[in-house]
Amino acid sequence: MSDIFPKWTNRLPLMMITGALLGGTGVTAGVWYYCTNKYANVGYMPVQPVAFSHAIHADQLGMDCRYCHNAVEKSWYSNIPTSTLCMNCHNQVLKDDPKLALVRESAQSGEPIHWVQIHKVPDYVFFNHSVHVNRGLSCVECHGQVNKMDEVHQAKSLNMTFCLDCHRDPAAHLRPLDKITDLDWQPKSEESQRADGAKFMHDWKVESLQNCSTCHR
Amino acid sequence: MRYLLLIFALAVVVVMVVGGRRGDLSRRPPIELFADMDRQPKLRPQAPNDFFGDGRSSRLGVAGTVARGDHYQDLPINTGHMPGVTNVVESIPAEIKVDEALMNRGQQRFNINCSPCHGAQGDGNGITKRIGAMGVVADLHDPRIVKMTDGELFGIITNGKGLMGAYGPNVPVEDRWAIVAYLRALQLSRLGTLDDVPAPFRAQLKK
Q1: N or C: which end of chain A has fewer CB within 10 A?
Q2: What is the pLDDT of residues A40-51, one digit of tens each?
């Protein structure tokens, strides 16, 4: 009598269970690791139309962030400067460099340069730059050490947990107002940060806002 | 069973190689699998938008109009000179209250906007000069500049002069006056004599 079921089918149930377990674990781990902003958004470094280096301007030359992003303290968004602002220096510095041809052209014609936006939150998130930088939150908290980047890439996930981590405990992140654009600044110690942060929260009336309507309207 | 484990291991390796790690640099924009109303067809500042003919969402001012909150252009406080004529005002207009807050603001704004070229001390030794990128940078302690009236300084900050660009578009009116006030303090710091120092502190200086 021939076998209806060959011998290996005896192992079939075990293989199915192992396969399901492995597959399930694999898919779960994959989704956990890859399907998040920490993977999808962090590290995004598009090619910009002009090879502007923040490392040269902000770090080597020591320019303040607000020389260019000059409306960040008054406006809900941090502005990209006009090309005419670049020309304040570049009418003399590297004034014939081909790398800056687009900037000169743009300043002449008034046609904006099409910089590629990197840091994006969803359109139903209403993040306001001015309230954050005016009350002790440094650029570096969300943008990372842009002053060390030749080409800017996204350094933080900017997902909702990221925002809430800080909103639940602002004292851990607030710093003196004159250090807002000093991206290398570090608190002296964890304890001093705690103490200063609590004082800043009191002085500047910083609340730990966690209502939906704080960010979503 | 062996094959099953092998296939699984292979799949894991392939996913890890193709997917890479978190935080790896990438030129490609993030994939947004579910739209979730993340990107809405509304106007966002400084972003391209097809609604207007020139493709800009941030609108340029209409010629001959003043936007709400903008400064009316013919008052001394906004121009640094008398209305209708080119006579510059002698000193900071009375609307601007010169106090400690204004001086601090002026110092901060000076360090942001002016010090890259003129240097934090205003002596023309900013970073652009030191790296040899700029030839001529005015020494703000030069008697020629010390003698200028406040209105003249304000006008130069606003409209630029020679190779210096106009800072009017980037620095608000109040901040420009604050810079003028701070610049005066900077200049005084080099013009002072021993008599300007309050008596109790003089002995310390002589040491």
Answers
A1: N
A2: 999 999 999 999
